[in-house]
Design brief:
The complex is a heterodimer.
Chain A lengths: L3 E14 L2 E14 L3 E5 L6 H8 L7 E6 L2 E2 L5 H11 E4 L11 H11 L5 H11 L15 H13 L5 E5 L7 H18 L2 E6 L2 H4 L4 E6 L2 E2 L4 E2 L5
Parallel strand pairs in A: 3-8, 3-9, 6-7, 7-8
Antiparallel strand pairs in A: 1-2, 1-4, 4-5, 9-10, 9-11
Helix pairs in contact in A: 3-4, 3-5, 4-5, 5-6
Chain B lengths: L2 H9 L9 H10 L7 H30 L1 H5 L3 E6 L5 H10 E14 L6 E9 L10 E2 L13 E4 L1 H7 L6 E4 L2 E11 L13 E5 H7 L9 E8 L7 H7 L6 E4 L5 H39 L1 H9 L4 H38 L13 H28 L19 H20 L4 H31 L6 H11 L5 H36 L3 E7 L3 H11 L4 E15 L2 E2 L17 E5 L7 E6 L11 E5 H6 L7 E6 L2 E13 L10 E3 L1 H4 L5 E7 L5 H14 L4 E4 H54 L4 H39 L7 H28 L3 H4 L3
The chains are: A alpha/beta, B alpha+beta.
Chain lengths: ~230, ~850
């Protein structure tokens, strides 16, 4: 059996708000082996995006242990977490979150430059070609369609060849046709690179393409994890 | 009654004050307060404060001058003569208009009896009737009676300090030993005398007579003040009609000191222009503020449109909102502008020679309101036009490209028309319209240069290949980005820094010209009032006491031009540069040969021993300013007689040599028969303070009526005054920079949300905080330095043109004046930027990344 690349044990997240303390994650245990595709599903406000934030180190758990790609996230500071992300983690957001002042090529090259790759631009151009955007290298985000922006975001997430790819409602801002193309792309790339893919979605139809579905409700993992052999 | 009827009654139309819907919507929107408008309000308030404060102070001074006109002038009307007293006939004419007081003013030297010290003094000899208005006050309860005795004088404290004297001590004045009988506490008509060198000595006319200083040809102003004892209508025109062609210079209580009034108006005009620059810079903050406001309100505007509001209703409503905000800024500016001058005076104004009345002076407040509103309109209309372009569809879908679009034509035209009205107002309300127009053009050009620099710089940052270092690539990306700070930074800091650089360089060049350029060629002393009969003896003394030095001399009288080319002076409209020639008395001289510093540019010099029609040589540039040509006749009044001479030639003069120079030089036969004195300059081959002092002592001992003016003292007085004026200009210029900094702070706060978002994305991609910090520092440093360098270049160009083309002195590069604004710009930019960055770096990522 493959080694676990994500290991969450009794993870809690409490946030302070004006109304008092809010308990968002209530003891989540989750292990994801290297190379697996996992769909995290749940209704709005169930804590699925928060769980993604915890797994990517963008939010710090207030309790429990978080180990990702061999690193103990609870022991790392903000910059340490940034470095781990730069080396091992790619994230695709619903709202793309491209740097508006940079071209598609520059956006994709950015994580490679952060991790000191001398050939960042060449690699970025190759990856953009892989996602079918070789004709859009010098376009700024505002000059691209939603589908194209999401392709750039995926290319950027995959550029440093991460072990782990997280996607948070990657088709949420796209129409059905573009959404399907993006999903095909994500799964093709997973196949091609062997990347672990964690997909957060409220859409059951998308989730079923994953090898495993994790349902989350009210901050807890709701159902036993089950395998969908042969899915996707 | 049915339910429907009740509802209709409750919600249906009721008779009430009809506030237009647009205004109601505006007021509803503003219920939430003025958040987001603080920079807008401060920018407008700052500029309006500057303009209102300068205008209020100037109006208060003018008001005090005209209120105290009689006291400052010493009468209702003053008629003054140079060199000679009024004739009995003239006295009789003056006497018919009211009570007359006779006063003589002149410069002389006060010397200690043991020749150990001397000082340049301003003598005022008065008759018993003085002062006709106001009260003369002495320290320690002394009265007029104490200086009534022949040989008794009252002095200003400055003289006691200068010569180490005390009450009751004696000193030499001309041929007389006088005693200090009183110390002047308040001289009611001091201000009208203007600014001049040396402390005042007050005495009776009889004492003046005893000093022997009042000789034919002596440079004495004889002033006749008249107190209107009749119908109260006595003014300048009355006396001008009663005393035609007599050489009297006449002033009345309405403008007791035309020189001071003129300087005040000019300084006030100039500071208003500087205030306008601050307001213009603030205008960029206004435009940014309104753009951000419209951006925040996109959904609201789209919702209004979706609900059926017309574009014009929305425009009117948002225009009303921003105008209310502008008016609030103006109101704050007016309040501060109307009160700050008096607060400042109550702290620092004890030494002012005038009692200023605190009060509301409507004219400057109206002016500040008009300028404030026009600036607001220029900068509001453009971004407001975009509100009209927002479509209802945006409620359903974000506009993909919110890039720069031109506003509808009416809005662009409104902005342009407001700018034209503002420029015309500034020009036509100025006393020196040509200078105001040039200044406005320069201000406009500066803004255009920095706007272009913003575009150019953005384009350049976009065009150069991205560096490998991601921090630099990020910095360049931000500079090149359409929503970046580049244009705001160059525009907001550029004008202020250019202005400060230009002011600094002009000040440095002028001070340098006065301090270092002159002494190399300049004489050490001027000697005034050497009797023509004594001159040979005087020259011999100088040759003995200062061997190797150079003595230059010229005969001198003073006279007033009364007509040029057959037209009376009152009908002549001279250029601004030449107007001073016609104001008051001018020094007149005659010469056989062309002086060394001069060069004939047109016409011919007269032959030796010329004895024909009186001829005059005129300084070429001033002659052009007065519209004169060769062959024109110049009529001047000297010693009560009108003399006419024909212009034989035009010549250039090197005024900066500080040698004896005159606007007009006459052929000797014109003036040599008149009683005149000699004016002499003494130039040493090398500076020799001990030798200079010895010569002055020897001259004072042998020629007690001769006045020695040390050139260095005169230059120091001018330098000190220049320093004070430049301080005022620098403070006003500093306001422009302050305005720019405010604009910058506003712009940084507008982009903060975007910066945080960007930093968060970078963090998700693996960027450490240090990297983000470096990227920001690099961006701010590049922007700050680029703006500073261009401001230094633009400021230098402005100062260079001003100095070499208008003021006509050489340009001095001053590293201090050049670097100070540049360093300031970079510090401001980086400091303000990093203050924002601190908040960017500490922002939590999660809230920004969650799907909307």
């Amino acid at each position: 059996m493959a080694e676990n690349i994500v290991e969450l044990k009794d993870v809690h997240l409490r946030l302070q708000s004006r109304a008092g303390s809010v308990h968002i994650l209530r003891g989540v245990d989750l292990s994801i082996p290297q190379g697996e595709t996992v769909g995290i599903v749940g209704p709005s406000g169930s804590g699925k995006s928060t769980l993604l934030m915890i797994m990517t180190g963008l939010e710090k758990a207030t309790g429990g242990s978080v180990r990702v790609a061999g690193h103990d996230f609870t022991a790392l500071d903000e910059d340490g977490l940034a470095r781990v992300r730069g080396q091992h983690i790619g994230i695709v957001f619903q709202s793309f979150h491209l740097v508006p002042t940079m071209t598609a090529l520059e956006n994709v090259a950015l994580p490679l430059e952060f991790s000191g790759h001398a050939d960042a631009r060449e690699r970025a151009a190759n990856i953009l070609a892989t996602v079918g955007l070789s004709h859009r290298l010098d376009h700024f985000p505002a000059q691209l369609s939603g589908g194209e922006q999401q392709r750039v975001a995926i290319a950027r997430a995959l550029a440093p060849s991460p072990k782990l790819l997280f996607a948070d409602e990657p088709t949420g801002n796209l129409d059905a046709r573009n959404g399907e193309q993006i999903m095909d792309l994500l799964f093709d790339l997973h196949q091609c690179y062997g990347t672990t893919l964690v997909l957060v979605t409220h859409d059951q139809d998308l989730a079923v393409r994953c090898e495993r579905i994790v349902r989350i409700d009210d901050g807890r993992i709701d159902r036993a994890q089950f395998e969908l052999e042969g899915a996707a | 009654m049915s339910t429907a009827a009740t509802a209709a009654e409750r919600y249906g139309p009721k008779p009430r004050l009809t506030v237009p819907l647009s205004l109601r919507l505006a007021l509803r929107e503003l219920r939430g307060g003025f958040a987001g408008f603080y920079i807008f309000i401060t920018c407008i308030a700052l500029g309006a404060t500057a303009i209102a404060a300068v205008g209020t102070l100037s109006a208060a001074i003018q008001h005090a001058i005209s209120r105290e006109g009689r006291v400052l002038l010493g009468g209702d009307v003053e008629a003054s003569l140079v060199h000679r007293q009024a004739t009995p006939e003239e006295r009789a004419i003056l006497g018919r208009e009211g009570a007359v007081s006779e006063i003589a003013t002149l410069r002389s030297m006060a010397r200690l009896s043991d020749a150990s010290g001397q000082a340049l003094v301003r003598i005022k000899a008065v008759d018993d009737a003085y002062p006709l208005y106001g009260a003369l006050q002495f320290e320690g309860g002394k009265t007029r009676a104490d200086i009534q005795q022949p040989g008794a004088v009252a002095v200003e404290r400055g003289l006691l300090e200068q010569l180490g004297l005390g009450l009751g001590d004696r000193f030499q004045l001309g041929n007389e030993t006088v005693s200090i009988a009183a110390i002047i506490a308040k001289e009611p008509d001091r201000l009208a005398a203007g600014i001049s060198l040396g402390p005042r000595i007050l005495m009776s006319l009889e004492t003046l007579e005893r000093t022997g200083l009042a000789q034919p040809g002596s440079l004495i102003d004889w002033r006749y003040r008249v107190k209107d004892t009749g119908d109260g209508k006595l003014d300048k025109a009355t006396l001008e009609a009663a005393l035609p062609d007599t050489g009297f210079q006449i002033r009345d209580r309405h403008d007791p000191s035309p020189g001071i009034s003129r300087s005040l108006r000019r300084l006030s005009d100039f500071l208003t222009l500087v205030g306008l620059t601050a307001l213009l810079t603030g205008g960029i903050g206004v435009a940014n503020s309104v753009s951000a406001f419209i951006e925040r309100k996109r959904k609201v505007i789209a919702a209004y449109k979706a609900l059926g509001a017309s574009g014009s209703l929305i425009t009117r409503s948002f225009l009303a909102q921003v105008l209310i905000v502008a008016l609030l800024g103006i109101l704050i500016g007016l309040t501060l502008g109307a009160t700050l001058p008096f607060l400042a005076i109550s702290f620092y104004g004890a030494g002012l020679p005038l009692q200023l009345d605190a009060g509301i002076y409507p004219a400057p407040l109206l002016l500040a309101t008009a300028y404030g509103l026009l600036i607001a309109l220029i900068f509001i209309l453009w971004p407001l036009g975009r509100a009209r372009q927002i479509r209802a569809g945006e409620l359903l879908r974000e506009e993909v490209d919110k890039g720069m679009r031109w506003p509808p034509l009416a809005f662009a035209a409104g902005s342009v028309v407001s700018a034209i009205v503002l420029a015309l107002m500034a020009i036509f309300l100025s006393q020196q319209q040509q200078i105001a127009a040039i200044a406005l053009a320069a201000i406009g050009a500066t803004f255009a240069v920095f706007a272009a620099l913003g575009y150019g710089f953005r384009a350049l940052a976009g065009a150069i290949p991205r560096p490998r270092r991601p921090e630099l690539a990020l910095a360049l990306g931000n500079i090149a980005g359409p929503a970046g700070l580049t244009r705001t930074v160059t525009l907001s800091l550029g004008a202020g820094l250019t202005l400060l650089t230009a002011i600094g360089l002009t000040n440095a060049s002028m001070t340098n010209e006065l301090k270092t350029q002159m002494p190399e060629h300049a004489p050490s002393h001027f000697f005034v009032g050497i009797n023509k009969a004594d001159f040979a003896r005087f020259a011999k003394l100088i040759a003995k006491k200062a061997p190797g030095s150079e003595l230059n001399s010229a005969p001198m009288l003073r006279g007033k031009i009364v007509a040029l080319a057959g037209r009376p002076v009152s009908e002549i409209k001279p250029s601004e540069e030449a107007a001073w020639v016609l104001n008051g008395d001018r020094g007149l001289t005659f010469a056989e040969r062309l002086p060394a510093d001069s060069k004939i540019v047109e016409g011919k010099w007269w032959p030796p021993h010329y004895s024909g029609e009186p001829l005059v040589s005129f300084e070429a540039e001033l002659a052009r300013g007065l519209g004169l040509k060769i062959g024109d006749k110049v009529t001047f009044n000297v010693l009560g007689r009108n003399v006419t001479a024909r212009i034989a030639n035009f010549r250039t003069v090197d005024w900066t040599s500080l040698n004896i120079n005159f606007v007009m030089i006459f052929s000797p036969n014109t003036l040599e028969a008149a009683p005149y004195n000699m004016l002499a300059t003494l130039t040493w081959p090398e500076s020799d303070p001990a030798g200079e002092a010895e010569v002055v002592r020897a001259v004072a001992a042998e020629f007690p009526t001769v006045t020695a003016v040390r050139v260095r003292d005169a230059l120091e007085t001018v330098t000190a005054m220049l320093g004070k004026i430049f301080t005022a200009i620098r403070v006003a210029g500093g306001l422009t920079l302050l305005s720019g900094v405010l604009v910058l702070a506003g712009a940084l706060s507008t982009v903060r949300a975007r910066r945080i978002y960007e930093a968060v994305i970078l963090k998700t991609l693996g960027a450490t905080r240090r990297r983000i910090l470096f990227a920001h520092i690099a961006e701010y440093l590049i922007l700050g330095l680029a703006t500073a360098v261009f401001a230094a270049i633009a400021g230098t160009a402005v100062a260079y043109i001003l100095l070499t083309q208008i003021i006509d002195i050489s340009f001095t590069a001053s590293p201090g004046a050049l670097l100070q604004p540049a360093v300031l710009a970079t510090i401001f930019m980086v400091a303000f930027g990093l203050f924002g960055t601190a908040r960017v770096l500490s922002a939590k990522a999660a809230p920004y990344l969650r799907a909307e």
